[in-house]
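Journal club prep — side note

Before the paper discussion, L.F. wants everyone to see what a predicted structure for a comparable chain looks like in token form. Sequence:
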Amino acid sequence: MGGAWLQTMAENFTSPLIELRGVRRLYTSAGETVAALDGIDLELKQGEVVVMLLGPSGSGKTTLLNVLSAMDSPTEGTYRFLGEGVPTAPDALETTRFSLPMPHPLLQPLVWPIEVSVRLIQATIRAPSRTMASRRRAKALEAQASFRRRNIGYVFQQYNLLGDLTVLENVMLAQEIAGARDRTHAMDMISRVGLEGLHDRFPSELSGGQQQRVAIARSLAKKAQLLLGDEPTGNLDSETTQQVMDVLLGICRKEQVTAVIVTHDESLTQHATRVLRLDSGRLQSDERGAAGTLVGKSKAVMKDALDTAEDVVDTVRRPVEAAIHGGLATAKALTGVAKDIAEAARPNRKE
């Protein structure tokens, strides 16, 4: 019995976070079927940071992210998250309309009643089945939305912050939607992305890099297990890009969050444990990134150790500074009181 328990624990520990098997996503347009994803097999472990370098439009970037976030469903294949099947929803039913060949304009008034009658009969016959299909689809879409709320964080190229909410309110809104409102954790995330003291600012009062940091804090504040980034640094300069990526991936390492980041910037591969290349809906290569090498892992460990040491120093420094400031304020107040007493005790002199 003990051996079976240990085996189960080992399997749970080594099981992938994400498992795609034979995933295809087909779309039909103008009678032609297009494979946006064509046989994707992929496993991602918790804590991996993956950068996908994509080519031209149609390589599968948006479709793959949509499937991973359960905003879209595979046409074929399976998608498992922590060993469990991810909810899928059927495509919306297409509406087909009956129409007769356009006759001579003088005969059109004679054709219209026939066309309308046929359409009414079609609608009456299809109504029950379409209603049941719509209900099943709505239920499936709600299951997908529930999966996203619990597990997925998303960082877009556009920051998508609400302008009439403060930094803290933007972050806590994501928590509230996920049903996990936690002001302390939200403030901690804001501090971790380097925005301590700016929680009461509005987005218009922040720079582009700072707004993207708010978006990162928002996506991670609800304790998501999978973070998806769609060109998260596309609107930032190179220096700010480096700062944002350091913050993003540092938090992902500490929180053991798996990040899948789509970018065209080759320089970002230095942050990746794996580099995936997609083209025409197919996975062309799966290579180890710079952060996945022994040297890269060592650098990450050292950096995390330094960050932890800084956090400890800050944790000790703040109460000490508060005590010192409090002591100085108390001493100043006592000095003022003593001065007032001395002034009151001094005899009045008559001129």
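L.F.'s comment for the group: Residues 293-351 form one domain. Keep this in mind when we get to the figures.
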